[in-house]
Amino acid sequence: MADDLLNDGEDWDAPRPYPRPIGLEGARWTVSVFHELGDLLPEKMELIDGKLFWSRRERIGMLAAMLEQVGLVDAVRLAPKELWLEALRRVEAEEQGG
Questions:
Q1: Burial label, 13 (beta-carbon count in 10 A; 0-12, 13-18, 19+)
Q2: Residue 61 and residue 18 in contact, taking contact as beta carbons nearer than 8 Å
Q3: Which one-letter DSSP state was computed for residue 47?
Q4: pTM higher than 0.90 for the full model?
Q5: Are the beta carbons of 25 and 77 closer than 8 angstroms?
Q6: What is the pLDDT of residues 12-33, one digit of tens each?
Q7: Do the beta carbons of residue 70 and residue 26 sit within 8 Å?
Q8: What are phi and psi of 39, to 5 degrees?
Q9: Residue 89 · residue 48 · CB < 8 Å
């Protein structure tokens, strides 16, 4: 099945940029906004090899959608400040080639 997904030459595991703003506070969607997201969101909830959804792309897409709906203020309450700071350090190091 994974081979079928790759037939068009696209890497279905690579996350795509989330096309909508993720703000500090949560946002509500209209039906048209939901449809705009297209294949960024998975069709259904699945647990495959211990992970939700088929691909990293679907997991990141769903996470971005949920962050938009919930907002970053509530999201940062889910983990200790030290973990958020460590995550930021790792991302910055990756972006700087380190």
A1: middle
A2: yes
A3: E
A4: no
A5: no
A6: 678 778 888 889 899 888 989 8
A7: yes
A8: -85, 10
A9: no
